[in-house]
Every structure is written in structure tokens, then in C-alpha cells.
């Protein structure tokens, strides 16, 4: 029998009869991989037979169902991570943890396994590392519980069967991209393998009320590798972000069926593994020197208020086109703010290279960082500095107006706790601690001295 193949996009799952350079569905380049189509022998569809193969569903009264949130949760050694998870790891839930290579995914999962194994049976399954490698990490992190077990496998069928046994309360699968099903001929990591292996594991977890954490790889753009359907199938999607070479690392939930997606856990890597940062604001400001181009921003990481230092550097451009570089801040937003500064103030930035850095490896997605970035740029260009007693927050509009910020009361409380005397912020905030700022030009003239 002749073997037929098709080409499947690894980004969106679209299929083609022949290879093309760009997927017409998701516009991704070089994402098509050839896969063998399994022949169907002697099979007819239910429609052709004129019969239905299904059966009547068993149903119960809705009011008799016990909600999953009422069940006991598995607690990790990190209180903030428990909050991100909605109170801990729910029995029967499937969580997906994604992050850059080397950021610490295996480390944090081994620490979670060690803590949970003090009271529950845990199985750590690795498809990437040998038993010896995992043992070395476990010894370094002090994971020596009798109830912590290890298995090495890349078979999705075997892993699902093991979960179906119901012997374990928590199963770690590292990682989904290394798994393959016996019934599918394509290579591990392809759309069909990831989707079907994910389905197998999720069904087994739900059937036995076993908590499962799956590790997922990310693309070079930072998005979760594989089909988007995997994120829809799981209960919780966690993003592990930060600089793998140093600085703070954050875990945030971008999807959570059992809790809020506004919480964040902040970690730093030490010799004995990851540790939660109890007071990130104090740690970020410990080495700060008040120079021109340095502004303290009152921002939010999820629901947690944090004070971070925004640094700006402006130098004369040696080329015809000025350079703009940002670390921890959106470059498109930076270009927009530079345009607002040039249009609404008297500062000329067209002949200057501008560099922005968020200290500590933090990545800002807060629109209230606009005013701090603008003041840092103005301070660097003018060679003047802001007083040490000020923190700054507020969104900047295209007209140069200062707009309101989300959860201003939490930002103010954090600034007061660390000894700051005033905050420069939107005029809509009614607090004596806040000096109202309505217009960008007036604010720069008045406070950047």
C-alpha cells in the first residue's frame, strides 16, 4: 500500500498536500513539517453506515456536585506561588509551565516536588534528562523524601497509563515536547504529537483526580511552542519570565480556572535553588545612586506594588538616524513617548541616541510607567536630576496629558513604606502624598532641576 504524507504547520496545525514556505493560515515561515498519514482500512463513517456509535450520557443534578475548589490543595514551599495558583495545586488539575531555556523550570519543579512529597506521593517524569542528572539536582536542592519517585520516559502512552494507576497525587512531566504516541508516526514535538499526548495525560489526570504539571518549551519570540489548543486544554498556564543570567524571575498565571490571573510570584536564584523575594522594592533600590536619568517608578507586578528604578542615557548620535534601545520596556512605546516629548515640550531628541533600562531585569507592562520614562529621558538630556524624595507614576497621552493609573492607593502605600515623601502622579488621585501632574511639559519644567 502506498504511504501518503501531508505537511502540517507547527504553529497553527493547518495541513497542506505539498510544502510551501509560508503558512497561509497563520503567516508563519518555514513552519511546515512532513507527516505520514495513517491509512484507514475497512472503516466507514457513522454517516455512511446510517448509525450512531454514541450512547446516552449519564447526568446528575447540578446542586449535588461538589466544587473542585472545596477539595484539598497541594501546597508548595512558596506562599506567593500558592497565591498565583489560586491557593495551591488543585487535585485533578493540569498546569502548564513555560519559560526560556535555563531560567529554572526544572529547579522550581524539583523544589515543588520535594515539598509536596513530605505528605503525598509524587512522581517526577523526565524525557530530557537521565536519572543521574536529576539525582544531582535533587541533592543540591535537598530533595530526599522517601515519597518522591522518578521515571524516565518519552512515551505518552506509558505516562498516561502510569497516571491512570492512581498511585500518585502529583505527577511532573518534563517536557511535553519530548513525548510521542505509539499510534502516530510523526516526530516528538510536532503539532499532532503534542496535542494527542496532552489529551491522553489530561484525560488520565481527570479520571484519577491526579494533579499534573507539564513543562512546555517556548519559541524564540517568547511564546509557548506548539499548538494553541494545548493552552485551551489545560487548567492553568504559568509563564516563567526573567533573565536567566541574573536578576529577578517572575511566575505569573496567564490562564487560571481556579484563581486570579493578576497575581505574581517573584524569585531570585541562589546556590540552594529559587527563593521568594519578600521585599523586591527594597532589593531593587539598594544599590541606587541618584544621578541624572534615574527615576523611581511605583509600578505593579500583578496585584503586588513594586518600586523600580528607571534609568535613561542620552548621547549625541554619530549617525543620521538616532538609536533607541530599551531593556525591560516596550521599544514601540518608547518611540511613541519620544515623539510626545518632542512635540509637546521644547526638548529636541532627533539628534540623540536614547537608552532605557529597567533595573533588576524586570519587564514592565504597566502603562503607568510612561511618566517615569519621560522624566528619565528629560533628566538625562538636560543633565538634571529629580529629588530623592519622589516616586513617579502615570500614563502619558498623545496630547501630553497625564492620565490615571490603576490601583494608585497600593502604589502610594508601597512608596510610604520605603520612606518616600511625595509621589508625582495623575491629578485624579486625591491623596496629600501625591503631587498632581496634569501636563507633561509643566511637570518636566517644575521637577526636573
Task: Write structural notes for this entry.
With 449 residues, this protein is α/β, with parallel strands linked by helices. The chain folds into three domains: 4-40; 69-278, P-loop containing nucleotide triphosphate hydrolases (Rossmann fold, 3-Layer(aba) Sandwich); 282-447, 2-Layer Sandwich (Ribosomal Protein S5, domain 2), CATH 3.30.230. It contains twelve helices and 23 strands. The strands form six sheets. The chain has a nine-stranded mixed beta sheet. A four-stranded mixed beta sheet has the order 15-16-18-17. The longest helix is centred in the middle third of the chain and has 18 residues, at 191-208. The N and C termini lie far apart (82 Å). The model has no long low-confidence stretch (mean pLDDT 88).
Q: Could you give the topology of this structure?
A:
Layout: E1 4-9, E2 15-16, E3 32-37, H1 46-49, E4 73-74, H2 79-84, E5 89-90, E6 94-99, H3 105-116, E7 122-126, H4 131-141, E8 148-152, H5 156-164, E9 170-174, H6 191-208, E10 211-216, H7 229-233, E11 236-242, E12 249-256, E13 264-270, E14 273-276, H8 280-285, E15 294-301, E16 304-316, E17 324-327, H9 331-344, E18 352-358, H10 370-382, E19 390-392, E20 395-396, E21 402-403, H11 408-417, E22 422-426, E23 434-437, H12 440-447
Parallel strand pairs: 6-10, 6-11, 7-8, 7-9, 9-10, 17-18, 19-22, 22-23
Antiparallel strand pairs: 1-2, 1-3, 4-5, 11-12, 12-13, 13-14, 15-16, 16-18, 20-21
